[in-house]
Each structure stands twice: as structure tokens, then as C-alpha cells.
Amino acid sequence: MRLPVLGRPGGCLLFPHPRSSVLCLAHQSPIFKIPIFDPKKTCCRTHATSAAPLAPSSVPSRRSSARPAPPRPSSLYARPSLQQMEVDRAANRARVYDFLRSLRIAPDELDGLELPVTVDVMRERVDFLHSLGLTVEDINNYPLVLGCSVKKNMVPVLDYLGKLGVRKATFTEFLRRYPQVLHSSVVVDLMPVVKYLQGMDIRPVDIPRVLERYPEVLGFKLEGTMSTSVAYVVGIGVSRREIGAILTRYPEILGMRVGRVIKPFVEFLESLGLPRLAVARLIEKRPHILGFGLEDQVKPNVTALLEFGVRNEALASIIAQYPDIIGIELKAKLTSLQSLFESHVLVDREDFGRIIEKMPQSVSLSRSTILKHIDFLKCCGILLKQVSKMVLSCPQLLALNLDIMKMSFDYFQSEMNRDLEELVQFPAFFTYGLESTVRPRHEIISERGIKCSLAWLLNCTDEKFEERMKYDSIGIDEMSTESMLKPRVEYEPVDEEDGEEEEESSFEYVEDRSLKRADSLVANAVANAALASLANEGSSFHSTAATASATSSLHGDYSVAWDLAYVLHRRRDECEMVTLVLTVYRVGYLKVYKESKDDAAKSVVAECNRS
């Protein structure tokens, strides 16, 4: 009889049939073992139960009749021992290391890095990096790049950058600056950074240029340096609407630490007399100034300016006009320029400081450019002593285009019939456009028989000139040329090494096309300088209205003029503030600020309306 055994599939207990002659005495006999048969196996097992031992003749022994199982053959897929695996791994790594050494790649830093098992896979990675333009030296600078798989890491990352618009021609420099990008995950690491940049109002078309300029941004954490740096510059007064443009031009701001870089820089400029609002405007216009090293560039350059005769109270105005002056190799330029002025222009140390204060861009003029302009003025019949006076009064003469200066002088000499001394007294004559300003106004006063100075003729807006033509007599409406003498030229700094022809062309004055652009830059500098002057509590505001009028007449950056008005309003200088607002109102810019949601602008407008 066969009974199934619980927990043993296919296993059974054999008992004699109840009617068999073999009686079941399990309930009264000691335990004995009964064979258990498994149909899936050839051998049998025994099971212990309570039963009387059966006679050998009645229950034959299965164990005695079963043959021993033959030994199992070793499998072809049997895993090697751990020891053998370590030996094989060490041998493969040694072969890969020998291959890298044959290419002059030092594998010392690769210990502990998961490397390809075979030399062929490593050769594929090296060849792919070479195809991207990376050299053996580049790989040695960051050998961990060899741990990146071509198919799993390199190709997906580069494909994503290409889809964003990063040019393939820039991949080499991109990977030299930030090879760690090849370890990145497109979804986890790169996409969130790109979305953050777009959230900062950087246009999608500008994202590739931002990444090409500053690829390290792809490794920053969103909640770390990037967010804090943006929050700080907005907090000091930088317009939130300008953040996208600022980061597009200078994305390095995203990697600057506030406590170590940005805040100390801003506080130092404030200590020189620049209000925080003026610093914010400088950052909007020239965001790269934040990259100037405070200890190794900015402070030494400020010290150099003071050493060469610049007055401490003029530092803010100089930086407002030419922010790059605190970030260039200044001392050597000042030494060379002072020597040139002393020998060829007869300018002493104190006057040299005044020239730098009026036109700080002069530090970037080349020696040949200055000498050509000096020679031209002397060829006009002006004595060297008079040339010195003209340069001191209007140093912008040294940056004008010589061809246009010649045309202006020819007109002055042949048509205007004025004494050369008038030109010496008002050298800014050369900064006005011949066809747009000088000729039309001269013809008007000639028709009416009006006799006036060059300053009265030229140093005013078109609207103001029309008002003057309505006067019965000139009277005493003669404005000071010293306070209003501002050039209308666009400056671009040029180094000596760039060559004389490039230097000359960089300072060209194009009468028709660049005049408005130049006016904006100069007006911005004028208003910034006036804003900087407000840092001193005891300073006088007599020139504020004149500064605002100059800003308006040159059609410059009116946001700076309004910042000036706001500061005046807070200091309760209502008279000067109203004069400034009315000046801006005359050229039609008040409407913009009437519609503004800025409380400061509304306050100024309300004060203007009450007046």
C-alpha cells in the first residue's frame, strides 16, 4: 500500500495491505525506517516512523539493491573562484595600463576606477576623445574621463549639447574647460540646469552661447551658488528684467560666491563714493567688472590712480565713466602715459591727474595715436602751449577721428571766419558733428547777423538753440564750458600690442552712424558721475540741473537720471529734483515713468506735478 508523504512531493510510505499476511505493528513496535521512493530520482531515501521491524524475507531492502550514483560531470558554465576572478581582473588592468603608457597617458590616478576589461574598449574611448580634438595632454589633465563609456556617457551628452545649439567646433574647448560633463546624466544633471537658465530670462537662442562661454555652469547646484548670487545682485538694485541680459553677457556671475566675491566688491566701490544704486547700474551695463580681482586688480589700480595725481573725491566719477579702468594693468600704462604727456604735451603731474579725471579712457590710448593728434593741432597753427591747454580742457581731442577733425577745422577756417583763439578756448568744437550741428547752426546765426561764442552756439540741445533764436538779445545766457564740456565720442579700450592701425580705427568718430550711440554712453557716464557725487553729504548740487540737462540733451540713459532724481528726493532737495524731472519731461520721457509701478518713480512724478 502506498501513502503520500506531506512536504515530499512524489514521496510515499509503503505499508503492507491490511489483508496481507504482513501485519502492521506500528503502534506497538519501535521506530524503524521505511524507504521513501521518489519517481524523479533513481535512489531512495528512508523515513522514520513507528512500526515493528519487518522480516527481511517479507520486505526486501531497497538500499541494498540500489546502485551508487555516478559522479556528476563538471558544468561548462561553472563560475570560477573569487581568487581566480581577482587574478584575471588584475591581469586585464595591467594590459590596459600598458596600453595607456604606450600612448604616454599616465594611469596613476585610475586606481579604483572601473575600467574596460579589454584593451580594445579602452582604445575605442581614446580614439573617440581624439576625434573630439582632445590631446594626450588634455587626457592627462583629467584622466578620469577614460572611465566614461562612449555609448552610455559621451555620445548622449554630446548629442544633447548639440541639440541645444552648442557648436561642434567648440566641443574641444568646452571639454578642456569642463571634462566632467561627460560623467553627467542628461536627464538628472543637465536638463534641470538648462531649465533654470531659461527661468532666468535667458532666451533659448542664447543658451548655447552661455554654455560655450561658461560650461562650468552645468556642474552647479540649483539651490546653491547660482540662486544666491542672482538674489544678491537683485537685492542691491539690479533690475530683475535685466538679469537675463546680464547672465547672457557674463554668466560667470552664477559661479561667484556672494560672501567672498560679489559683496566685498560692491562694498569697496561704495567706500570709494559710489552709491549702491550706481553700482547696480554699472553691473547692468558692464557685468564683467564683477570678475575683476578685488585684491590683485581693483585695489592696486585705485592706489595707482591716487599716486598719479587723481583726487580721492574723483575716484567714483572715474569708475562710473570707465569701469574697466579698475581691471586692467594700470600702473604701467599710467607711467608710460605720464612720461609722454610731460615730454610732448607739457603737462605736469597735477594736470595729468585732471586729464585722467576728465577722460579715464585715455589710459588705453596708444602712443602713436596721441602723437598724431598733437601733430595735427600744431599743424593747424596752434602753439604747443595752447595745445597743452586744449588737451587739459578737453582730453577727448586725443581720441577723435583725424579725418573728421580736418574737415571741421577746414570749415572753421574757411566759412566761420573766427579767430583761432576761440578754438583754443572751446576745443570741444571738434566733438560736434559738422553736418548735423555746426553747419546748420552757423548758417542760422549768419543769416540773422548774431555774434556769439562757439560755446553759446554749440553747447546746447536743438530745442534750447531754437529758444535762443527767439531771444531779442543774447543777454547773459552764456553757460560755463567747464561744467558742460562733454565729448560725443564712443571709446573702446585698445592695448598697445594690437597694432597701430587697429588702435586708430577703434577710436574712430563716425559722425552720422555712431553719434547717437556715443551720446548714450557719454550721457550715462555724466549722470553716473553726478550720482556718485551725491555720496558726499556736504557736496553742492548747483550742477545737478546742468548735469540732468546734459543727460537729456544727449539722449542718454534716463534710468540713471531718474536714480539721481530719486536720491535728491530722498534728501529733500526738491528744487534740484524738480529741475531735473522737468528737464527729462521736456524730451518726452516722463510718460514712461508715469506708467511705472515703481513707488520711487511715482513719488518723483507726484512731486513734479505739484510743482
Automatic annotation (TrEMBL):
<protein>
    <recommendedName>
        <fullName>Transcription termination factor MTERF4, chloroplastic</fullName>
    </recommendedName>
</protein>
<comment type="function">
    <text>Transcription termination factor required for processing and steady-state levels of plastid transcripts. Required for splicing of the chloroplastic group II intron. Required for the accumulation of 16S and 23S ribosomes.</text>
</comment>
<keyword id="KW-0805">Transcription regulation</keyword>
<dbReference type="GO" id="GO:0009570">
    <property type="term" value="C:chloroplast stroma"/>
</dbReference>
<dbReference type="GO" id="GO:0006353">
    <property type="term" value="P:DNA-templated transcription termination"/>
</dbReference>
<keyword id="KW-0934">Plastid</keyword>
<keyword id="KW-0804">Transcription</keyword>
<keyword id="KW-0150">Chloroplast</keyword>
<keyword id="KW-0806">Transcription termination</keyword>
<dbReference type="Pfam" id="PF02536">
    <property type="entry name" value="mTERF"/>
</dbReference>
<dbReference type="GO" id="GO:0008380">
    <property type="term" value="P:RNA splicing"/>
</dbReference>
<feature type="region of interest" description="Disordered">
    <location>
        <begin position="52"/>
        <end position="77"/>
    </location>
</feature>
<dbReference type="GO" id="GO:0032502">
    <property type="term" value="P:developmental process"/>
</dbReference>
<dbReference type="InterPro" id="IPR038538">
    <property type="entry name" value="MTERF_sf"/>
</dbReference>
<feature type="compositionally biased region" description="Low complexity">
    <location>
        <begin position="52"/>
        <end position="67"/>
    </location>
</feature>
<keyword id="KW-0809">Transit peptide</keyword>
<comment type="similarity">
    <text>Belongs to the mTERF family.</text>
</comment>
<dbReference type="InterPro" id="IPR003690">
    <property type="entry name" value="MTERF"/>
</dbReference>
<dbReference type="GO" id="GO:0003676">
    <property type="term" value="F:nucleic acid binding"/>
</dbReference>
